[in-house]
Specification:
Blueprint (H helix, E strand, L loop, with lengths): L1 E3 L6 H8 L10 E3 L2 E3 L4 H6 L2 E4 L11 H5 L6 E4 L2 E4 L1 H14 L16 H14 L4 E5 L7 H16 L3 E5 L3 H7 L2 E6 L2 E7 L5 H9 L13
Parallel strand pairs: 1-8, 1-9, 4-7, 7-8
Antiparallel strand pairs: 2-3, 5-6, 9-10
The chain binds adenosine-5'-triphosphate (ATP) and magnesium ion.
Length: 223
């Protein structure tokens, strides 16, 4: 599902609500048809909803594997004392990055030394590591070079093939058409259209985003 809309339309705010970072004043969130209330992003993660925020929320002065396991570190117990199992975390991190086809110089590298695309890869690996069913990405390609954008779009397609649900926020209508099945358009905090990608056109979507097009019921796909 692509979520599109002009700057300030409320996209990030909506997904922060879905992710447990903001509490909704009203309305219900259904997960597999069941109402849920998330009190924090961690709460949402535990229920299989992982969000990669626009700001990425990675720790620059920590290594790649420390970031992937942040808040969910693996431990082992020796003589009754708990230790971080760094070797296991590094091993799993390497596997995840390989799965995503992200090449990094060294798993010990601080995240602040990585490129934008590599950082996005680390953030996605972190979401995959909790085996989330729903992965929400806020503008994952905004700051990336062309080759890195291709890679992120490939990650999204790979997630879709694995049967995961992805919500992608993007300003790039071409990217949206390449990876989405459905498109939701927000304007001034409201959903004004939900379209099947293969039954609409970039021009129509842009019309909804800018407000040039009015909502016609027949064009809105069912929830
Ligand atoms: N449903 C809402 N009700 C009231 N205020 C809202 C609502 N949604 C968003 N806002 C406010 O509108 C502003 C912009 O929202 P937000 O950052 O979510 O936009 P955005 O669509 O993500 O924009 P961008 O494309 O620039 O990232 C924020 O100050 C937010 O608090
Ligand atoms: Mg935003």
């Amino acid at each position: 599902m692509a979520l599109v809309g002009d700057n300030g339309a409320g996209k990030s705010t909506l997904i922060k609500t879905l992710a447990g970072a903001h509490l909704p004043d009203e309305g219900v969130i259904l997960l597999d048809g069941q109402p849920v209330r998330f009190s924090s992003p961690k709460d949402a993660w535990m229920r299989g909803v992982a969000t990669i925020f626009q700001e990425l929320a990675l720790a620059g002065k920590m290594t790649i594997s420390d970031n992937i396991f942040l808040g969910r570190e693996l431990t082992r117990t020796i003589a009754g004392i708990q230790f971080l199992d760094r070797r296991a975390m590094r091993q799993r991190s390497r596997e995840l990055l390989e799965e995503l086809d992200v090449s990094v110089p060294d798993i010990h590298t601080w995240v602040e030394h990585l490129s934008g695309g590599q950082r996005q890869g680390v953030a996605i690996a972190r979401a995959l590591n909790i085996d989330a069913d729903v992965i929400i990405m806020d503008e994952p390609t905004a700051a990336l070079a062309v080759a890195e954008v291709r890679k992120v779009l490939a990650f999204i397609k790979a997630l879709r093939r694995q049967g995961k649900s992805v919500i992608l926020i993007s300003h790039n209508v071409q990217d949206v058409f390449e990876v989405s099945d459905r498109i939701t358009v927000l304007r001034r905090g409201r959903r004004i259209a939900m379209l099947e990608t293969n039954q609409t056109t970039p021009e129509e979507v842009v019309g909804y985003i800018t407000g040039a097009a009015e909502v016609t019921r027949s064009r809105v796909a069912s929830d």
